[in-house]
Amino acid sequence: MKKFIFLALTIIITACNSKEKKVENSIEKTAANEVVKETNTELYGSWVGDFIPEEQNNPEEFSPTNKINIILKKITPDQVIGQSVVAGNNRPLIGTLTQNGNTFSFSLKEPGDHKYDGSFAFTITNDTLTGTWTANDKKLNVTKRSFKLTKKQFVYDPKLMLPDEEEYIDWYNPKTVQVTDEEETYPEDYYRQASENITILNASTQKLSDNDLKNLKKLDLEIIRNTIYARHGYTFKKKSIRQFFDPVEWYIPVSENVDNELTTLEKENIVSLKRFEKYAEDNYDTFGR
Q: Which of 2, 106, 197, 240 has a CA that sits 20 to 30 A from residue 18's CA?
């Protein structure tokens, strides 16, 4: 009789445990399958504009205004996920959002494992995103930047060209020459300037021949080649390249690697341009800044 009672109790306990496990498994599956509701999806996308130096450790050191793209990817009641693309850096963002009427306030941080990581604090009111970035590393020359951005959509367009009304001078690679004037010798910087060919030759739409390239300056060849990458939204690391594209209205930095986006024609032209760059030369002149 005792054996029977023990067996019955064992069966009952096992059955109860089995039911509890089924309930637990059901709850876990429900939690796993539960979709967190996203909010304020109208704010998603790229917000683009100038990234302006505000605070510097050495004000005498020139720090350029870069173009930044803050991408908002996902907003839930508890979390905001985004991305910052600027000056060759493509960094994830995570943080929170609060709302007060028509104003959305964001506090987002970069991971912190990169030299130029920092934190973003900004608001979106109507169609404008305004805020500041503060560097984690206070030893950097620029420790704070401001920005006022508008929402833009990146679309690859092979017909995009640099504006022809601008002068394209390479301010970052001068050649210093000793000049003698009225018995006084002093150093003077000379700079290279691109020709109008950079606004005429399109390496994304036309096959460039040797005749097209053989008489071009080295700077012309460099700019024509990098304009291909700019059309695809490549974020340039070098200041000497960014100086030509950051001020351009259509340029939107979106990626640090666009190799898979290049067309066959563009790849062929890049090879040709690099081949001529090896032997091309530049003319230098003096320019006032």
A: 2
